[in-house]
Amino acid sequence: MSELQLERFNILLVEDNGFVRNTLEDLLRYFKVEQIKSARNGEEAISFLKMMHQSHHPGPDIIISDLLMAPINGQLLLRWTRTAKESPNRFVPFIMVSGAADREYVASARDLGVSEFLAKPFSVNSVYEHIAHVIHRPRPFIATQDYFGPDRRRIAGSRPVGGKNRRRENDDHVTTVYSAEKVTKSKNVSDVWCFRLPNNLKEKAGGGDGGEIPQIPADILEQAEQSLERAVLDFTTWAQEYLKNLISLCNDARDNEIKRVSKFAEINSLAHELRGQGGTFGYPLISVLGKML
Length: 293
What we know:
Elements (H helix, E strand, L loop, with lengths): L9 E5 L3 H13 L4 E5 L2 H13 L7 E5 L7 H10 L10 E5 L4 H9 L4 E4 L4 H13 L4 E3 L4 E3 L23 E4 L5 E2 L7 E4 L4 H6 L12 H11 L6 H21 L4 H21 L3 H9 L1
Parallel strand pairs: 1-2, 1-3, 3-4, 4-5, 8-10
Antiparallel strand pairs: 6-7, 6-10, 8-9
Helix pairs in contact: 2-3, 8-9, 9-10
């Protein structure tokens, strides 16, 4: 793989640990990335991305984000980036970074539309390789009723291990989008949209004439979502889970005096997350509740 030329790249780095954030930023500077925006958590990152959207900026070329943060973690940031209409570019390569790189977290990030998962502790080579991978080997984006993100099959035509293949063998149900001007309609009612966009990032990294990362007009995305009847960024399911956990913690704190202090600490941590998330996702009452706690 030829050396990347990242001087013209714009990277958003999201990390709550100051030491790790500075280390990653130093690495990106070492790779000659000149435009780096740092955010301390998902809340700051979303505010920054909303500002870019309002100013009609195409957004960062790549997002590199930690997984475990508060009040908005990497999973919620990824979900917002992929589904929110205020996201400046829902196709942006997203690299998730975490020391909790077990199967559950990796699977969850994959199902939310992550591009790559970088495990801590990372090295200079591993960071560089993950950036190179999203530039040189991007997967087509898939939109279905319950998913929007890079094709979860690393190899085209691959089958699940040890189970029945539920994927269809032909593409007569797929609407394929190659660019804003070229859309191939499916023969039957489309329940899958496939976005095979031009790889301008690769050109940009090679010093060619590549410009900004591909942008698909909002009306095409809107058309895809209407045909799939997709509900985007339904925070109510997340909020209900948080409130369910909160009720459980309050009951435990009331009934178990010995563990009350630790339960109060957990309630405080959860309230901190609710306070930030409610306002960000349009549920101000959740923020008021979190602030009261």
